[in-house]
Specification:
There is one protein chain. It is built from five helices and ten strands. By secondary structure, the chain is of the alpha+beta class. It has a single domain, classed as Roll (Thiol Ester Dehydrase, Chain A). Strand 8 and strand 9 form a beta hairpin. It is globular, with a radius of gyration of 19 Å. The relative contact order is 0.16.
């Protein structure tokens, strides 16, 4: 990217927006069904499971404001990065107090940094957005969200790596159009790589529909809950390593440390290649 373009993007650093929303029981019930859980219907005051706050503060741009890839056209709060691919690269989250069904929540978002570099896949631009969520009781959650923009040309992922440790917990996930559609609908995510097979294969050159990064992270956090420890999550961070597609099953895996306070989590494809790595710190 030319220096003039980099300088213009830096004008977005420090830009902020404030939004309010209410944690509704209905989307939580639908996400529970999407994850194939047998939860009772959520009631006001129930704890919101980790990462389910992504059901709130959904984008609301009009259909005419969508770009060729289904995302909102560039500009507005996020900077107008002139690269076509946009991906959720990772996040770092810390809970100060729990979020609950029925809470009225205020989210203050700020563009923390914008950096560019040239990698094996070509030109890359990294945007870090910091979100702070508060309820009537005070700040509940701080989250840093890493977004990466890249060109259509070049490799989509680097050489495959594998997790050396053996998991104590694992769950096989068989992704399909229904799972990806449901998660897209619940998060009002119109990015075409998750539901438009012709677009994702012919335009972006991938072999199949791409499993959402936040869905993968949610499945990793859900693995904790399935083993009785997810409600005590204090910190959670994850990094996407390579995409997963709906053409093959994958596994979500976990390995707690000796005292059970930190859990290494990862998602791997059918051949064992790492797709996402995460660390969960429990209280």
């Amino acid at each position: 990217m030319e220096a003039a373009g980099q300088d213009s993007l830096q004008e977005w650093v420090g830009r902020s927006e404030t939004r309010t929303d209410t944690i509704d029981a209905r989307p939580a019930m639908l996400l529970s069904a999407t994850l194939d859980r047998e939860d009772p219907p959520p009631r006001p005051g129930d704890l919101l499971p980790p990462l389910w706050h992504w059901l709130c503060f959904l984008p609301s741009y009009r259909t005419s404001e969508a770009g060729p890839d289904g995302h909102a056209r560039r500009g507005g709060f996020l900077p107008p990065v002139p690269l076509p691919r946009r991906m959720w690269a990772g996040s770092r989250l810390e809970w100060m107090r729990p979020l609950r069904i029925g809470d009225n929540v205020t989210r203050v978002s700020r563009i923390a940094s914008i950096t560019s570099k040239r990698g094996a896949s070509g030109e890359l631009v990294f945007v870090v957005v910091r979100h702070e969520y508060s309820t009537a009781e005070g700040q509940a959650l701080a989250e840093e969200h890493d977004i990466v923009y890249r060109d259509l040309s070049g490799a989509a992922a680097g050489p495959a790596s594998r997790e050396a440790a053996e998991p104590r917990w694992s769950r096989r996930i068989v992704p399909d159009d229904v799972l990806l559609f449901r998660y897209s609908a619940l998060t009002f995510n119109s990015h075409r790589i998750h539901y438009d097979r012709r677009y994702v294969t012919e335009v972006e050159g991938y072999p199949g529909l791409i499993v959402h990064g936040p869905l993968l992270a949610t499945l990793l956090a859900d693995l904790l809950r399935r083993h009785g420890v997810g409600e005590t999550l204090r910190r959670f961070e994850f990094r996407a390593r390579r995409p997963l597609f709906d053409i093959a099953p994958f596994d979500v895996c976990g390995l707690p440390d000796a005292n059970g306070s930190v859990v290494a989590l990862w998602a791997q494809d059918a051949d064992g290649a790492l797709a996402m790595q995460a660390t969960a710190t429990l209280t």
